[in-house]
Amino acid sequence: MQTATPAPRKATRPRADALRNRERIVTAAREMFVEFGPDVPFDEIARRAGVGNATVYRNFPDRDALVREVVCSVMDRTARAAELALAETGDAFEALERFAHTAADERISALCPMISSTFDRNHPDLEDARRRVENLVARLMDRAKAAGRLRADVEYGDLMMGVAQLSRPPAGTGCMSADRFVHRHLQLFLDGMRAPARTVLPGAAVTVEGLRS
Fold first, then answer.
1. Euclidean distance between CA atoms 18 and 127, whole angstroms
2. How many CA atoms lie within 13 A of 78 on its CB side?
3. Where are the chain's structural domains?
4. Residues 140-159: tens digit of each pLDDT
5. Do domains 16-61 and 66-212 have the same CATH topology?
6. Would you state the pLDDT for residue 154?
7. Are 34 and 105 in contact (CB under 8 A)?
8. How far, in Å, CA of 201 to CA of 154, rounded?
9. What pTM, to 2 d.p., does this model score?
10. Which strand (E) or helix (H) includes residue 90?
11. Mean pLDDT in runs of 10 for the chain (213 residues)?
12. CATH for 66-212, among 3.30.70.1350, 1.10.357.10, 3.40.309.10, 3.40.50.300?
């Protein structure tokens, strides 16, 4: 007598409320990491997210897991901004400008202090997100150069370092008071990247490899 083989069970999808809770946790963590630095207690993050401590730990068993999710989510939004800029059919430099201002609002540079020596910088999720951003921004810059609108002696690292440094507030409760200067100073920086170039830049252009070395 043969026994019927049970049908394989379908993987259960997370409930909508569980997904919303996870997104609230990531959003709250990003805000608090920017404002107060990397050591914000999980219970404070849970309070801002409007969930219980157990919900935070159920989604993110340790700080590294939460940091990785926050950084990846910021990089994903930055990549989407680059995709939208690439889809524009107008002035190539203006599209690059709009991307740069959107990237500045993401404040990914403010998250860098959280990446400690114990953090896995080469985690596959981070590597995938990083490569996606690099490729998209390089395409944006190449298009602006081909149109004669972006100076030829700048590379990916020059743009992203400028965006990062100008949008990175000092950690602390008063850090958001500098927000009103970010886009003004970023536009001054971007104006210096326009072609034709008025001066010769010292040193060499900062490439992706240069950022990682």
1. 26
2. 27
3. 16-61, 66-212
4. 999 999 999 999 999 999 99
5. no
6. 96
7. no
8. 9
9. 0.81
10. none
11. 50 73 94 83 95 94 89 91 94 96 83 60 86 94 97 94 80 56 92 93 86 69
12. 1.10.357.10
Alpha-carbon distance 104 to 44, whole Å?
Answer: 26
Q: How many helices (H) and strands (E) does the chain have?
A: 9, 0
Give the pair of three-digit tokens for residue 23.
Answer: 């997104």
Which pairs with CB-CB distance under 8 Å and at least 24 residues apart come from 196-205?
196/151, 197/151, 197/152, 197/153, 200/153, 201/153, 201/154, 205/153, 205/154, 205/155, 205/157, 205/158
Q: Does domain 16-61 match CATH 1.10.10.60?
A: yes
Question: To which residue do tokens 């596959």 refer?
Answer: 124
